[in-house]
Amino acid sequence: MIFNTDFYHSLGLADVRRKVMDGERLSMDDGRALFNCPEPLAVGALANEVRRRMHGDKAFFVANRHINYTNVCVNACSFCAYQREDDEQEGAFVLTAQDALDKLAASPVAPREVHIVGGCHPKLPLSYFEEMLSAIRSQYPDTVLKCFTAVEIGHFAKLEGVSIEEALKRLQAAGLDMLPGGGAEIFAPDVREQVCPRKLNGDEWLDVHRKAHAMGMKTNCTMLFGHIESIDDRLDHLIRLRELQDEHGGFVCFIPLPFLTENSALTIDNPLTGLEKLKTIAISRLMLDNVPHIKAYWVMLGVKEAQAALKFGADDFDGTVVEEKIGHGAGASTTQGMTREEIRGMIRGCGFTPVERDSYFNAVEG
Ligand code: V47
Ligand code: SF4
Predict the structure, then answer these.
(1) Residue nearest to atom 6 of ligand 1 (CA)
(2) Rounded CA gap, 251 and 242, in Å?
(3) Could you tell me if the CB of 255 is within 6 A of ligand 1?
(4) Where are the domains of the chain?
(5) Residue 1: pLDDT above 90?
(6) What CATH fold (topology level) applies to the domain 58-356?
(7) What ligand has the least distance to the C-alpha of 75?
(8) Which of these, 284, 266, 349, 323, lies nearest to 68 by C-alpha position?
(9) How many angstroms does the Cα of residue 35 sit away from the middle of ligand 1?
(10) What are the strands, taking DSSP E only, across 56-173?
(11) Per-residue pLDDT tens for 199-242?
C-alpha cells in the first residue's frame, strides 16, 4: 500500500515519491525532505514499497551465536556501557579459545554463523585471534565466522605492526569469513571527536571495509544514531556507505543501531521515540539503494519495534543470538536469545513469511 500522489504533494514529497517509484537514486536534499516530513507513515510506506520490490513478503533470520571475547578496551567511547579500562577492573574478562568452544558447544541452536567481537585489548596479539578462529574452524567447518569490526582489525594491525591487508589475510587463513558492521558509529569527524575520539576515523573505517571487499570478503555496516549527531550527519553517513558500496558491492546488510542510554558516560536530553527510530530505518532503506538488506536488530530495538521495522523497510530480523552483552550493558530489555520458532512467530505475527538464511542471505532449511 502506498498513499496517492496528492498526499505526497501535500507533504512536499512529490518528487521523492516519483524517484522512489522510478527506482532513481535519492540525493542529500531528498533525505532532508524525508527527515523533515511530519508524517512518518508516509516515509514508511515508501520504504515498504522498496522493501517489497526487493524481497516481497520475505523476512529473513539466521541461526547465530554471539561471542564477546573481552570487554577490556583502550578506546573508552562515551556511549559504551560494555567497556572496562583494564583487566583489573571489576567485571573485566578475556575468553580463551577453549572458552569460546565451550560456549559454542553449549549453544541451544547449532549456529550457522558465529559473530565474534570484543574490545580493543591493549595486549592480545594477532596469534590469540588466529588460534581462536582455527580452533572454531576445525570443529565447525561449515559455520560462517563473522568476526571483528573494522575498529578491531585496525587495532590488531597497529599492535602487531602489520598492514590492514596482512591482518585480514592472516585472519582469513585462520578461518575468518566475513566482517560484522560495528564500529562505524557516525562518520562526521566532529561527532566522532566527541563520542569516540580514540577510534579509527570514518575514512579509516571505510578503508578497512574497502580492503576486505577488494579481497572478496563480504561485510556488514552500521550506524549508531540518536545521540549527538544531526540529521545531516546521518545522511552523510548513509551516503558515504552508499558510495563505498558502488565500488565493490561488498556490503550485505546495514544495521541501524538506536543509541541505548543506560550506564554510559554519554547523557542526552531527548532520547529517540519509537517513531523516530522507524523513520530513520525507513530513510536508510530509501537512501541505501545498493545495499541489499536492512536489519531490524531485535536486541537493540526491542522485539515489538523490530516487528514494526519490518513494515518500515527492514527485511531481516537478525537471529537466535543466544548471548548478548553490548546492548544489554546499555539497558536493552530484550531476552538474551530467541529460538527459531519464536523468531518465526514474531515474523508471521506481522504478516511476513519467515525465511531462515545463511550469512549471505541464501535460504536454508532450518
Ligand atoms: O559497534 C555500543 C554499538 C555495536 C551502544 O554486523 C551501541 O551483523 C546502541 O555492530 N547503544 C555492536 N548501540 C553491534 C553491532 C552488530 C549487531 C548485530 C549484528 C551486526 C552485524 C552488528 O553496537 C558497536 C556500537 O556501534 N553500541 N554501545 C549503545 N549504548
Ligand atoms: Fe571499545 Fe567498542 Fe566499547 Fe568503543 S564501543 S569502548 S571500541 S568496546
Answers:
(1) 180
(2) 9
(3) yes
(4) 5-48, 58-356
(5) no
(6) TIM Barrel (3.20.20)
(7) 2
(8) 323
(9) 23
(10) 58-62, 64-68, 113-117, 144-147
(11) 999 999 999 999 999 999 999 999 999 999 999 999 999 999 99
